[in-house]
Amino acid sequence: MAAEGPLRRLDERTGRALAASRLPGAAAEFFADLGNMPVAVPVLAAAVAFTALRAFRAGAFRWWLAPLGAVVAMVAVPLLVIPLKLAVDRAGPPGADGSGYYPSGHTATATVAYGAAVLLLLPLLAAGARRALVTGCVLVNAGVGLGLVRSGYHWPLDVAASWCLGGTLLWALTACGATGRSSCRSSWRTPRC
């Protein structure tokens, strides 16, 4: 993204086409705003508080691990996004000021905040509710990305890079066992790890 090339030209053509599309501007702004920290982080905070309190009251082994892992993943977002923005130093779409648009901080925030909240809540839900929650999370994150591009705040690959970054953080959250979804599970009676 830092150098000119066919991928960057395709990305910018696609971004200009989406920004000029008939997609409703007000809806795009609404979804773009869902990636703001003051919107996304309280959703995660509520899920962290709810699951921590529920696990603590149930006397769960390492009740604090999943909520702490979600917080660490969220804290990692600016720690990773800001250096990447500075390193790539990509200019924004027409009308955007300056550079540092790759990757999208709003997209990474939404991906990790909503994704970690879903991962925390999944073990507490029935199968149908799980599917609905995961589907809702995917749709909201797609809406955030599309809203940012349609509103002219980011190029499509800025958004895609943040989805990859956020997905990696969520994968790490589950891989280390912080959500109770790893291959190394423990019961409330006898921990296996």
Low-confidence stretches: 182-193
* Shape, per Cα inertia axes: elongated
Terminal CA distance: 42 Å
Percent helix, as a range, is 55-70%
Order of helices and strands: HHHHHHH
**Mean pLDDT metric:** 88
Structural class: mainly alpha
Instruction: Outline the biggest β-sheet.
Output: none
Query: Number of folding domains?
Result: 1
Q: What is the strand content?
A: under 5%
Describe this structure in words.
The structure is a single chain. Helix content is 67%, strand content 0%. The protein is an all-alpha fold. The protein is elongated. 37% of the residues are buried.
Could you give the topology of this structure?
Blueprint: H1 6-19, H2 25-33, H3 37-57, H4 65-88, H5 105-121, H6 127-150, H7 156-175
Helix pairs in contact: 2-6, 3-4, 3-5, 4-5, 4-7, 5-6, 5-7
Summarize it.
By secondary structure, this protein is mainly alpha-helical. 67% of the residues lie in helices and 0% in strands. It is elongated.
Structural descriptors:
disordered C terminus; mainly alpha; 193 residues; single chain
